[in-house]
Amino acid sequence: MSASVDAGDVKRHKWWGWGLDDVAFNWRNKPGFAPLADEKIGLDLRTMPDPVEPDLADFPVPATRLDPAHRAAIVHVVGEANLRDDDEYRVVHSFGRSLPDLFRVRHGDFTRLVDAIVYPGDEDEVAAVLRLVIEHDLVLIPYGGGSCISGSLTPDISEQRPILSMNLGRMDRVLEIDDTSGLARVQAGVYGPDLEEQLNAEGWTMGHFPDSFTYSTVGGWAATRSSGMQSDKYGDIEQIVRGLRMVHPDGVVRTKAIPGRDAGPSVHEMVLGSEGRLGIITECTVQVHRIAPVRQVIAYMYPDWEHGIRGMHAISRSEVKPTFTRLSDGPETRFSLALVKEPSSTKGKVAAKVQDGLFAYLRSKGWDTTEEMCISYVCFEGSKERVEREKAIVKKIVSRNGGITLGAGPGAVYDQKKFDTPYLRDFLLNYQVFGDVCETGASWSTLNEVHSKVYDAYYRSRKEAGGPGFMFCHMSHSYHGGACLYFTFAFPYTSDETALEEYYGAKNAVQQTFVDIGSGVSHHHGVGVEHRPWMEQDLGETGARMIRGLFADNDPGRNLNPGKVLEP
Amino acid sequence: MSASVDAGDVKRHKWWGWGLDDVAFNWRNKPGFAPLADEKIGLDLRTMPDPVEPDLADFPVPATRLDPAHRAAIVHVVGEANLRDDDEYRVVHSFGRSLPDLFRVRHGDFTRLVDAIVYPGDEDEVAAVLRLVIEHDLVLIPYGGGSCISGSLTPDISEQRPILSMNLGRMDRVLEIDDTSGLARVQAGVYGPDLEEQLNAEGWTMGHFPDSFTYSTVGGWAATRSSGMQSDKYGDIEQIVRGLRMVHPDGVVRTKAIPGRDAGPSVHEMVLGSEGRLGIITECTVQVHRIAPVRQVIAYMYPDWEHGIRGMHAISRSEVKPTFTRLSDGPETRFSLALVKEPSSTKGKVAAKVQDGLFAYLRSKGWDTTEEMCISYVCFEGSKERVEREKAIVKKIVSRNGGITLGAGPGAVYDQKKFDTPYLRDFLLNYQVFGDVCETGASWSTLNEVHSKVYDAYYRSRKEAGGPGFMFCHMSHSYHGGACLYFTFAFPYTSDETALEEYYGAKNAVQQTFVDIGSGVSHHHGVGVEHRPWMEQDLGETGARMIRGLFADNDPGRNLNPGKVLEP
């Protein structure tokens, strides 16, 4: 089947940051935000001048290293319209949206860019380009939605060979839905919203909604082992992607979408998470579900983190199966409240008054509503009967663990703004402030230890750096054996020259704590280069040796996204 | 920790067949069995002499090829008591319980036996033995419960190097239970019943009950990607085993029992299903669950297979989450009824009358109660409220799909005798009859096609062979995207000389049909050598190349269970 769009039509981030050109975080309509920023990291927004957007014309862009003969050979495969090597495209495809990438791209650190971007229209074109890559000893980096925050799509600055970025965005179709089996064959380059739109039109959903949803693709999710916020019900991408096709240097790998994968070591699970080092994923067969008749997000409040975690654990051990369960800790709850817009309608003003009254009441009961109180959201889906029954059970569990039910109002607000968070990092960078995230999977019995030790490590690192810092955290993605802890941190950096060193000081403190306790190096952000330093500790020496052997065996020339996941 | 038992205390099969010496299938107390055997495969049990058990003394056993110096080196590691090279032990450890293995062992086909059996007491001993194996170019085959029906523990008759079988049976302890996380660290050599006993004592269950439960181990389940009959609730072994330790030629591989495995290609999923080719699994961290307060197995009857499958599919799409769902087709239902014991109690006689009356009523409604009617079992676990609610929903679904609810009586009978089936194959071999099983995972949309085409292929192969045959099937292990179809077949072979050729005529017809339709080469019986011929078709050429590369990279000397899963 021919691709539905040309290269020029494929959605892309603004060159210097997340998402659309004309969308940005607005602090002025959120009265709680500026005071919190001032208190926690000394950022006084009211005295700051309006930020100026970076201009690509200010920065020199090095010439492409792609040989004209090689360029012609690739154009022969995909057509002239589907190879791009103009400056903006090369910049956009050379940086993911990790904090270091955002910092570097804004500062025009274009030491090594990809040399061209190829937009194949089908699997045959992917295979033909891959053959050229091997034959001419080029480097190939797959590109999905460009939202990777672990550096997996960023070229190695020491790479001397010409580097191609392969944007799968033209391969964006749902090819087939098997209604009986609840399975859909989907091209790897389809973005989240396009995928859901095509599925929804037939009454289906895949239910995979990572924060990056608007700027990420099925192939990217599979290649980096993504998890969506609704994974409690729909599963992580490893559960959702049942079969796939990947163009490998020696041919096409295809894994069957059948239950009970019982044929030796899992090729499927070698490809998932391979981040382009084994080949290019071109198609996935994914589980799809009928859109639930009823969906509700209910908000709850606990007096503190320990009570909240006990509640979350009790829900996971109950007979209730929510779509998602999420608990913000005290600092994150305060941050969330600081993001609430100033009410403009009468209804909104009344609601704000009601909230003030509630918080006063809670304080009278001994709650610390500023620093300790924890908000929680639970999403229920299914028949009306099921949603009502499960809500009643969860309400009891929350109450038994010292919490109260706030209701559907705040839940609906949370649900609507869930994809807006990534814009905040660009906003903070305008003011020389780093805001970033680190997450890990940990067992239920170690969640509190991870939580407190990560805080300790972060604030110790900030103290050593001599500057302020702010951290908050939520628990999400509940499993039988544990859950994900998702930390967000922010601090002002002191100078452009030392900025990345300051960033890694904080980031590394957090990551090393994860690994020291035995929790995961990453829960769903992949490895790339940002998490690579901990892979040997995470996998152990022999596990790392197995992965290295896998890469060396399948890509002896190191042409496929070399250096990602593990060095060499 | 030191091993709790010596080699001599480790449970083992009788040398020539399944399980205990004094347990055998008894047809005389089952009035329906002999007539069915006569009708379907021309076996008239009433005219047959009583079978004579084979005697090991009748068969010459070749001398061990293990060099005395190597033997001494191994004894130095594990102690004299924990290396066995007497005839019976060597025979027991040289054959799994596949049909070809059972046939060969009964006939004393001892061309190539393992040369010694080593029983390590801990992981260090496993590692020390593995080093000796590599150093002296020996061959090592791991041995769990010896119930493998795909030939994975059977030595290659052309192997010239000395062959060690490593029996993990001394490593049989639950080491630690993390109550909060619902995770237990378990040594790989623990048998199913011993494991459940240790877990039950603390109020936990793993919920993994394959047919082979009494003669299989955690390590064996992990190494062959086992599924238990309760996988709808508890998951296949891939979901249950969250972390593991494996002794690899270069060190110990350990995978962490954390949720959200997001660190590159999955080492964990390379080890699962590796059948000894990458190393020896010594420990698993498994999900455990509190024993459900209420458990009920309810039986249902459908007029035919198509109605039954529609019912099963509707249950899988409902909000009910049973512990297992199972549907026997018409022939298997008839077979099950033929296994019912003659009632001796008054209560039993009344129940039989009630059943006769019910079947007469169903015939009056147009049901074919002999050939078409399909029995189904659904297991419900949880609180009383949940079990009652789910039973009510399933009852409605069954009714809507043309079936009726029989109730808890037949369900309880099914539940009690579920581990007895393996004895039947030995019984049939006494009369020169092969009885065996083939199973596959298939999508919901192809289940009926697989079902009818496998029947066609099997009966065509029997017709070509010129002899009678009987086949029946059930559906079990329900997933979002599909289910397992489990076929049983039987036929009398004509002579010892042609027996295995006749066997493969039937088996291959079934297996090739699986692969031609695109369903799995095996759902949960592993690959070994019996399913190896279809692996290349199942994985595709490039997938097979990846697996071969994995084995070659990690075991370049081919010392670890060589030839299993894939040749070379």
From TrEMBL, chains A, B:
The keyword Nucleus does not apply. The record marks 326 as: Important for enzyme activity. The active site is at residue 486. Residues 110-291 form the FAD-binding PCMH-type domain. Keywords: FAD, Flavoprotein, Oxidoreductase, Transferase. Its cofactor is FAD. Belongs to the FAD-binding oxidoreductase/transferase type 4 family. This is Alkyldihydroxyacetonephosphate synthase.
